[in-house]
Amino acid sequence: MSSTQIKAGDKFKGLAGLVPVLITIFFSILMLLPVGTSATMSIFPHLPMIAVFYWTAHRPLSMPLGAAALVGLILDLWLGVPLGLNILLLVTMRMFVIAQLKYFKGRSVLVYWAIFSLSCLALFAMSWIIASYATSSFAPVGPLFNQALVTIVVYPIISWILTRARAAWT
Amino acid sequence: MRLGSASSQRFSSQAGPRKRHSRARASLLFYMIGALILLTLERFDSQVPIWVRGVANDVVAPVLGLVDQPIRSVQNSIERIAGVSDIYIENEALRRENRRLNQWRDAAAQLGRENDQLRSLMKAPGQTVPAAAAVRVVGVGGGAFEKSVLVNAGLSEGLSRGWPVVDDYGLVGRVMEIGQFSSRVLLISDLNSRIPVRIERSGQLAIVMGNNEDWLTLKFLPESQDVEVGDRILTSGHGGVFPPDILVAVVASVDEGTVRLTPSAKLSRLDYLKILAYQTIPPEVQRDMEVPE
Fold first, then answer.
1. Is residue A9 included in any domain, yes or no?
2. Per-residue pLDDT at B75
3. How far is A133 from chain B (nearest CA, A)?
4. What is the ipTM of this complex?
5. CB-based contacts of B5, cutoff 8 Å, min separation 6
6. How far is B44 from chain A (nearest CA, A)?
7. Domain tally for chain A?
8. Does A152 fall in a domain?
9. Which residues of B touch A43 (CB under 8 A)?
10. Within an 8 Å CB–CB cutoff, is residue A151 touching chain B?
């Protein structure tokens, strides 16, 4: 989808325009909190990835490329993962959604979920390659696959919350 | 004339999106290349990402401390409500445990006195490692790639990179990154964690390896391996990173040469931790060893 296809209605008004980015940063902080057990630590869903997908698909102008890269950088710094990893993931996610949005915009929630699931699996596979490159060792696939699965499973819940937020602030 | 103005209008209406398009492509390229440069710096162990991360941790640690308070309160309240029914049974178990521990305390005090006397007779140095700081876990990190936690103390508390970290039950990890007011601790379950250990019962030396899971693996055992389920695994002190005799794990299973361990430290519920001021070479000797520039 080219930028000309993004309508004015896709934009939040005034300070509310910051809401999507702020929610995504809040999700990044949530990923850092020592809640629950180590099981939740290792399979905590990648909430910022869901948020970037959701906002790019529903309000593209409120999740610019720079914001996606900034959230990625924040995640890399705070999570202690190789610097640049989440920048690449979130920027690629945004680029993918923008390019494909014309094919699925306005479709049912199930279609959005299916597209998110596929892109999530592809991005997690990509993150495995990037992390292996940065650390010069093969990262174990099991925990990564689990995290991808949990991220896909919680997508409808997070998407529902974000829809409520969108309705409240638009 | 009309034709000319129409074509110029079309041209200008196409030039706008095209310009925006190329600008978007340029910024995408900028972020992609930036990310790749950062990843390459990581690959070649540059100090830049470590330093930047230390500063970023300092910024986020107080925020996490604030956000963490209400979440912990809710979590504790739920646990308290869920635990009310077990209080009587737990109380009985604790009374029994207390009686048993009292006996152990007397025995330990007696052995401690004997040990001190023998050490002074043999002129052998003591092995107590002083605690540098008691810290609190304010954040977790790494996700599926790394096992680490963020703690609320750093250089300002006199901590140093590489120092071992323990909880009440055993070894937790070591300080990996250090900022002014916060530090990141690499857990023993991390893929890159390697700890020289010995099996308490047989005295055999080996290496404990993390694999980003909740369990650990015992590797590099001698061919005549003597290891059984329930064996305690202690640090050997070899390599100089960890002091000897800290409990690391207990053997959970032995299957065709694969030895799985359960960490002794409560890695799943880390809260308050102790950082040990452990240096194999005393600072004054280290200073003397440094070559002047």
1. no
2. 65
3. 7
4. 0.77
5. none
6. 8
7. 1
8. yes
9. 144
10. no
Quote the CA–CA distance of B223 and A88 in Å, as a whole number.
Answer: 46
Per the CB < 8 A criterion, the answer to whether B168 and B186 are in contact is: no
Per-residue CA distances from B157 to B72, B132, B136, B141, B151 (Å): 25, 8, 13, 22, 12
Q: What number is the average pLDDT over the span B67-91?
A: 71
Residue A103 lies in a domain: yes
Please list every residue in chain B whose beta carbon sits closer than 8 Å to the beta carbon of residue A4.
Answer: 17, 20
Whether residue A134 and residue B75 make contact (CB cut-off 8 A), yes or no, is: no
pTM here is 0.73
pLDDT at A38: 47
Residues of A in contact with B41 (CB under 8 A): 83
**CATH for A148:** 1.10.1760
A64 or B22, higher pLDDT: A64
Across the interface, whether the CB atoms of B214 and A46 are under 8 A apart is answered: no
Which pair of tokens denotes residue B151? 């703690």
Contact A87 B269 (CB under 8 A): no
Task: Give A141-152 pLDDT, tens digit per residue.
Answer: 888 888 899 999
Task: Identify the domain containing residue A159 by its residue range.
Answer: 15-169
